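In response to reviewer comment 3 from the previous cycle, which asked for concrete evidence that the modeling workflow produces usable outputs, we include below a single protein chain processed end to end. The sequence was submitted unchanged, and the resulting structure tokens are shown without manual editing.
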Amino acid sequence: MTQNAAASTYRTSHVGLCVSDLKKSLRFYRDGLGFEQLAHYELDEQIPEVDAPCSLTSTMIEKDGMRLELLAYSKPGVIGEPHHRRNHLGLTHLSFFADDIDATAEAMVGYGGTLVPDSRCGLDDPAGAQFTFVADPDGNRIEFMHIPAGTAW
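The workflow returned the following structure tokens.
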């Protein structure tokens, strides 16, 4: 079987994101970033890799073909913290294009985000690629980037 044949047997579905407060996360992702809510499920059943008893809310949201599943666990609750370094193994950030990354980042603060200190790149070359990061209400990194017209991407 060739590599191309294997790739044709599946397609992308979604990215799951565990959140501590669904209302805060919906305000950030839906109201702030413009994701559309697709589905909402209340589940009261045991699922793999979660301690019993298990009770959670799953909310599917989508923007520009990117689908996120926000997972809010009322039982047994949420554990851990998101990574705060981009060289840490695992998912490091979600990324979005923006015409004015600074204005976008500031606006997202109004939706519960936090500017990530010292994450602004590209100020030395205003005609080049521009990047900055905001943390969502749980601390997950969200990148806003502006790539100048004509730049390969």
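Residues 128 and 150 are 11 Å apart (CA to CA). We consider this sufficient to address the reviewer's concern, and the full set will be provided in the supplementary archive.
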